[in-house]
Hints:
By secondary structure, the protein is an alpha+beta fold. It contains 16 helices and 16 strands.
Amino acid sequence: MEIKAIRGFNDILPDEIGKWQFVEKTAREVFEGFGFSEIRIPILERTELFARGIGEATDIVEKEMYTFADKSGNSLTLRPEATASMARAYLEHQIYTFDPVAKFYCIGPMFRYERPQKGRYRQFYQIDAEVFGVDNPMVDAEIIVMLIHFLERVGLEKLELQINSLGCRKCRPRYRQEIINFLKKKSFQLCEDCQRRLETNPLRVFDCKVETCQAAIVDAPKVIDFIDRECQDHFGKVKEYLEAAGLTYILNPRMVRGLDYYTRTAFEVVSYQLGSQNAVTGGGRYDNLFQEIGGPDIPGIGFAIGMERLISLLPKDKVFIQHPHLFIAVLGDETIKKAYQLINQLHLEGIRAELDYEGKSLKSQMRRADKLKARYVLIMGEEELKKGRAVLRNMEDKSQEEIPIEGLLNALKEKVRRKV
Ligand code: HAM
């Protein structure tokens, strides 16, 4: 039986890869321009990191992690997100002793055992950016400005930035109690999971997709009405800085985010072109995460962009496929060696050239060149070669010219580069 990929794990095929490379390249350019440096972290971590960082009573930790014991019996987990790992690396290497402010980004696969559907996979890619060490609201705005600038640079349109404030360790307990009191009166409407969550993590009811649960929270108290003075001031400044940067946002008082580490600013960028999985980016501030994973009191803020969702929104008319600059059509056994030498030289010069390996007829070689959308075809026939010449055909305007073999490399380089 043919072996197939695991459900929810996708291949990214060569004809799609241009989009991925374009997005990654733009992210690197934009983020590095904003002073961020790349960090690469392991795909496997100790389970405890996520259990403590993301929160035991979140959907991710409760039911979506790929967790297993290694041969020594350690409980390990395929990273479901990058924030906790980046914070761990920052602590482990004591990067804060060198400079209290760190700006990192990371690109790579994450793993969550979710029910696969359009826009939701079990292996998916994120572009993640984090700022550690500052709780100034200016940084909250700055990182959102970077995000929106990046999304616009790759060509995304009609996005909506939603923001909320989730309060802090001091003011959240009051809100939590308020929500518990409110939901207890509606508990008959809640699904089994939410009835349990009522005790463990009542805020998660907001994320529940079950209709009766959604109906139960329609008039629920809003976190924004319970945040203390300091959190209000912080949020007020974030909004001011966003406005000063010319960004428009929507206040979404129901956005609580699915990970427990968030404090104060929370945000999402959604696209209504995406259907039910409409969040392209999720992020926020997490001023207690470092302490949760055993570190000092260090604030942080960041976001993660879902690459599959972003790529599905790229403009359809943009061309990402790299076609060959040149196809070498070879006629006769004598010529093949010459063509082989030439193509090697072209490749060393970074010119994308293709050759027929199978001794096919000129007609079928031309058909292949056409299919590959090669810009030029160099026809190397025995007769022409004897005269020290070859024919170069421009596949766009169909013009042909005979050019001398001598200096062929330079002539080709010149022509091809002219349009690169
Ligand atoms: P998150 O909201 O869980 O946040 O994920 C961020 C983004 O990753 C989502 O908006 C979505 O685009 C994408 N995503 C999540 N799950 C899937 C999936 N199963 N399939 C496809 N795409 C998915 C975080 O992960 C936080 N670490 C973000 C963050 C960084 N907060 C602060 N810093």
